[in-house]
Each structure stands twice: as C-alpha cells, then as structure tokens.
Amino acid sequence: MTYSAEQPIPADWTTTELGVLCEIQSGPGHLTNPASRSNAGIPLLRPMNIGYRGQIVHADLTFLPQEAESKVDQYRLRPGDIVCARTGDPGRAARITDAEAGWLFSGNLLRLRLRAPEWQGYLLHYLGSPVAKNWFEQASTSTVGIPSVTVAALSKLPVNLPPHAQAAAITEILEGLSEKIAVHEEIARTTAELRDLISPAMFTGAMSPHWN
Fold first, then answer.
1. What is the pLDDT of residues 62-116, one digit of tens each?
2. Contact between 47 and 109 (Cβ < 8 Å)
3. φ/ψ bin of 136: left (φ > 0), alpha (ψ from -120 to 50), beta (otherwise)
C-alpha cells in the first residue's frame, strides 16, 4: 500500500510544512569542497556519514582546517539538529548528538533546526517513513543522474502532526524497533564473521564439522 501526506488524517491531527517546523540551512559548499579539506581539524559530515537508521556514522570523516573556523560558525551543529541528505538519497536523515556538537556539514547536506525541540524524534522518524520517501521521490530533481532537493522544495514537505502524547508514543515505538534492528544487524555481522573465520579450516580439513 502506498501512503502519502495528502491522505486524510484524524480530526485531532494537523498538517504543516517542514519550513514552519524548522529553520532549514544548506551546507557551505564554497568552503567544504574537496580542495578546502584537511586530514585534521573540524569534523565535516557528508551524506556517507548518515546511517540509514538515523544515526551519525563516524567512519570516513573528513575535516576542515582550524584556520577556517571564523568562516563557518553559522554552520556549526548542535545536539538535536537533524542533518538531511540534499543529494544522492534526498531525505536520508540523522540526529546530532553531544558527540557531534560543533561539527560542520557539507554542501550536500541540509541542517534542520526545529523551532519546537519536542518534535525532534518524531520528525526524524517521519523523514524516514514511506510517507516522506514517496514525497521525496516526487519532489527531487535530477542533475547528471543524481537526485537532489532544494531548500525551497524541502520547506514545502507536508508533515502530519498528532497530539503530543501520541507523537511521543509513536516515537517510542519506532525507536524501540530501530534498536531491535540494530541488535539483529550486530548478530548477523558477528555470525558472518564466524562463518568466514571457520569456513577455510573446514574446506581444507583442518577443522572437523563434527565438533562439540
């Protein structure tokens, strides 16, 4: 079944635009192009640092040199900010934690700073939902085969808002499911590592399959 934000909602819900909920800021493309980057300094988030479960991935970080600090203060990230991919996989989003406070974001990301912080968790899950993904597919444009979304377009994303108590319950359920996914992914990862560790020994006779 296909869902969209235009479908009827309960009478006690409201619909607003993302630009009403958030201040939307694009990253400083002129300061974060590859020629400006460094091997140390201020961490710079790129789309590859957004995990598909809404977490920030600290692997493969790049940096801006410390001397660029005075030019990028307005692009600093705060805990609770949401960073959203602008290109490649528009709408893929993650929430900034204390661990990323003060970091920067590239021109391929957008920063969503909520005017009402209590909606942070709900909005993060909303952006990853089929409702929002369907909207992004329709709103994105393509340049040289790479999908992208503009600040102006993203500000028009319709967001369905339930009463606060219901929003909190929705967020709690979805975060619980995300945690279960993370546990099962870790089990799958360690099981695959075990398979790859023992299979060469089994295929060469160094280990018997009849083990206790």
1. 888 877 767 788 899 999 999 999 988 888 999 999 999 999 999 899 999 999 9
2. yes
3. alpha
Residues with Cβ within 8 Å of residue 206, at least 6 apart in sequence: 200
> What's the CATH number where 105 sits?
3.90.220.20
Give domain status of residue 40, yes or no: yes
Which phi and psi (to 5°) does residue 109 adopt? Answer: -120, 160
> What is the number of domains present in the chain?
1
Say whether pTM exceeds 0.85.
no
Torsion of CA 30, 34, 38, 42, to 10 degrees: 50
Joined together, the tokens standing for residue 21 give 């909920």
d(CA 87, CA 91): 9
* Pairing label, strands 93-95, 42-45: unpaired
- The boundaries of the domain holding residue 100 are 14-162
